[in-house]
Amino acid sequence: MLALLAVNATAKDATVWYLAVFSGLAVLALGVSIWFLYQASFPQLKGGNNSLVYFKEIAKRTEANYLKEMRSCDLDRLVDDMLGQVC
Predict the structure, then answer these.
(1) pTM over cut 0.70
(2) Domain residue spans in the chain?
(3) In Å, what is the CA distance from 16 to each residue of 2, 4, 43, 69, 78?
(4) What sign does the CA torsion over 6, 8, 12, 16 have?
(5) pLDDT digits over 18-58, tens only?
(6) 48, 85 contact by CB (below 8 A)
(7) Residue 61 in contact with residue 53, Cβ under 8 Å?
(8) DSSP of the chain, one letter per residue?
(9) According to the model, what pLDDT value does residue 3 have?
């Protein structure tokens, strides 16, 4: 996108205010997109205390302990745990 803007832009275009605004907004949108791609590439490691679905908390348990806790978990606790992951 940035390359397309650069190829089509001339020095005369910089003096036209609406082209400068459009180009600035396009560069800003590109920067925001790159920031969101960066954020999506790395996991958020906060929260999830004593969770059965949060990977950091699962890694603290042994396999046998995790299986035992998962089997004894009721549906309401599991739903609450999953809903707590999005906060």
Answers:
(1) no
(2) 2-41, 43-87
(3) 18, 18, 43, 65, 58
(4) negative
(5) 877 888 898 899 999 999 999 889 877 777 788 888 888 88
(6) yes
(7) no
(8) -HHHHHHH--TGGGGSHHHHHHHHHHHHHHHHHHHHHHHHHS---S--TT-SS-HHHHHTS-HHHHHHHHHH--HHHHHHHHHHTT-
(9) 76
The residues, any chain, with a CB within 8 Å of residue 85's CB and separated by 6 or more, are: 47, 48, 51, 53, 54
pLDDT for 32: 97
Only one residue has tokens 């996108």, namely 1
Here the tokens at position 77 are: 């606790």
Residue positions counted in the chain: 87
- At position 65, the amino acid (one-letter code) is N
